[in-house]
Each structure stands twice: as structure tokens, then as C-alpha cells.
Design goal:
It is built from four helices and six strands. The protein has helices spanning about 50-60, 80-95, 115-130, 155-160; strands at about 30-35, 40-45, 65-75, 100-105, 105-110, 135-140.
């Protein structure tokens, strides 16, 4: 008898490669966080989806409330980008409203702290946490101390001790 011929299996076709669009390289590489009364907005660039998500999670942790994510993906982030965005997010989270911005390695933070001591503490903490390849400009204000209670310095007893009262009419 003749040997049985087993046909070779037909190979599965190779799947079509999926083209992943290349991310653009951007300069200056910008990013920002803006804290309002009831919401926070993140905008600018992130080098990867995981870092974009980490930025949002950091804001939700530091600030709470609603975080609107308007970040887009792009290459060109400076070294220590994630450490810088984390430090800025923590600082803005401690302010009563404020904004933090990165443009390449330049950092700008502006907002209002509850007191002068708190403003100094936040600024020092940010300076310490910010990577050394970043430069910082900060404008952290604080409300002025309350005005002293007005004191009446008119001696009414002396005014009324005579027989007549004189009114100043500025004439």
C-alpha cells in the first residue's frame, strides 16, 4: 500500500503591522497646572501616557477635587521632567489657588499661601524638591495681617467740659 500523504497545514497569514504614529519632538517643552476654587487644570506636554496619568494622579492626591487633563503626548521632555512636575504639583496643592508652569527647565509658581510663614515653607520645600537642572521663579504671596482695631483718640470728656461745643467746618 501506498503511504498516506498528509497535507501540510496552511500557515496563518501574518497580521498586518499596526503603524504607531511617532510622537513629535517639541521645544520648548511646556506643561502647567492651574488650581482654581473647585477644579484643577493640567495642560501641556507629557512624554508618555504613563507619565501623563502619573501627573493627574499626583494632582488628585495633592489637591483633590476634579482634575481636568488637557495634556498631550510629545517627545523632548528635559531630564528630570517627572520629578519637576511632581514638585510643582505639590507646591500648587498647598496654595489657596495658584499656577505652576514649566517651559523646558524654567519653572514658575504663583499663588497665595495662608501666611508668610506658610509661604516661606512652601517655597523652601519646592526649592529643595526641584531637580538641580531646573531654575525657579516663584511669587508666593500671603494675605496681609489684619488691620488693628481702630482706636478712638478723641477725648470727649475734654470736649464737653466747657459751656459750648465747637464744630470744625473746614472753612
Amino acid at each position: 500500500p501506498e503511504p498516506e500523504v498528509v497535507p501540510e497545514p496552511i500557515p496563518e497569514p501574518e497580521p498586518e503591522p499596526v503603524a504607531i504614529p511617532a510622537l513629535p519632538t517639541v521645544s520648548p517643552y511646556v506643561w502647567s497646572i492651574t488650581r482654581g476654587t473647585n477644579s484643577t487644570l493640567m495642560a501641556g506636554l507629557a512624554p508618555a501616557e504613563a507619565i501623563q496619568t502619573a501627573n493627574v494622579v499626583a494632582a488628585e492626591t495633592a489637591i483633590g477635587g476634579t482634575v481636568t487633563d488637557s495634556q498631550t503626548l510629545a517627545l523632548g521632555a528635559p531630564a528630570n521632567y517627572t520629578a519637576a512636575t511632581s514638585a510643582v504639583t505639590r507646591a500648587v496643592g498647598q496654595l489657596n489657588g495658584g499656577v505652576g508652569r514649566l517651559s523646558d527647565t524654567s519653572v514658575f509658581v504663583q499663588g497665595e499661601a495662608t501666611s508668610e510663614a506658610e509661604a516661606n515653607r512652601i517655597a523652601t520645600q519646592l526649592e529643595t524638591a526641584l531637580p538641580s537642572n531646573f531654575t525657579l521663579t516663584k511669587l508666593v504671596g500671603f494675605p496681609p495681617p489684619p488691620a488693628p482695631e481702630p482706636v478712638c483718640n478723641v477725648d470727649f470728656a475734654a470736649l464737653f467740659s466747657g459751656d459750648k461745643i465747637l464744630f470744625d467746618t473746614n472753612r
